[in-house]
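Thread: Newbie trying to understand structure tokens

Hi all, I'm a second-year student working on a class project, and my supervisor (Dr. K.) asked me to get a predicted structure for one chain before our next meeting. I've only ever worked with sequences, so writing a 3D structure as a token string is new to me. If someone could post the tokens and maybe explain what I'm looking at, I'd be very grateful. Here's the chain:
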Amino acid sequence: MHNHLRHIIDSVIAGKEDLSKFIKIMDECNVKAVVDLDGYIGETLDNHLKVLKGEYADRFLVYAKIDWSRIDKPDFTEIAVKQLEEAVKKGVQGLKISKSLGLKVKEAHGNYLRVDSPKLDPIWEKCGELDIPVKIHTSDPAAFFTSFDKHNEWYTILLDHQDWMFNKPEYYSRDELLEQRDNVISRHPDTIFIGAHMENCPEDLARAGEWLDKYPNFYVDIDARLAELGRQPYSARRFLIKYADRVMFDTDGYKSTPINREMYREHFRFLETDDEYMDIKKIHTVVPDWRVYGLYLPDDVLEKIYHLNAERLLHWN
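---
Reply by user tm_fold:
Sure, no problem. This is what the structure looks like when written as tokens:
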């Protein structure tokens, strides 16, 4: 439910790759379908649909994105809603909202566009009308909003990605961003929202559970947060069992290798076994240095997380 296929699409269009290569990997790993979050809008979306909705249309789902470059135009909302409607007619099955909303997109007066800006309400409402989910990435790991020093548990990663630090006064705080997101979910109960990266609160599963309890239209995915889940295996196991009907299986496939055997198999190992002190660097290019512990989830819970929940939300079979 969370993959970035833009590099695959570019390679296929350039004649450097054949999509059948990735289908073979999916078959070997028992992966029925993959969601591509990189559809965007316009020509890029058309290219993704052309490649993924051809011979293997039953193996891929494509999400669109919003064109933030027009945010200060008087007709921004009207055009965004129209583009979304047209995208769904073309075959799009969801909307992806990246962390740019709240952390990068600025309005003309210089402030970062709030996640709960009223000008976005018609977009969320339209997603509900079209019956498509919104995959929303709001905020980031707690470490990205704290001091950048040797005490930061992501320090070794952030040395190479200092643009991921949002601890400056110009940014909304992490709590402010998450509150803005909650305002949106609350105002649009008929729209399904999926909180990317364990709602970006894997460090505090009690709080993450409170959001799921409060908002029945809110779901969660596990992508790129196995490091945080795997160092609290008892709490993570209890959480995933309790909210088994609300959790999605996601890998957040990274850059040029979003579909690969080792990545899938390490995810399966993490979720299905009680293996201890696992090194999960094979699942993603950028993960913290600590080791994790398998969650050994029951089969009925695995079935829901792996596919039943996604099939229900996406009307996919």
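A couple of things are worth pointing out once you decode it. The beta strands are 34-36, 60-64, 94-97, 134-136, 193-195, 218-221, 247-248. The two ends are 14 Å apart (CA to CA). Feel free to ask follow-ups in this thread.
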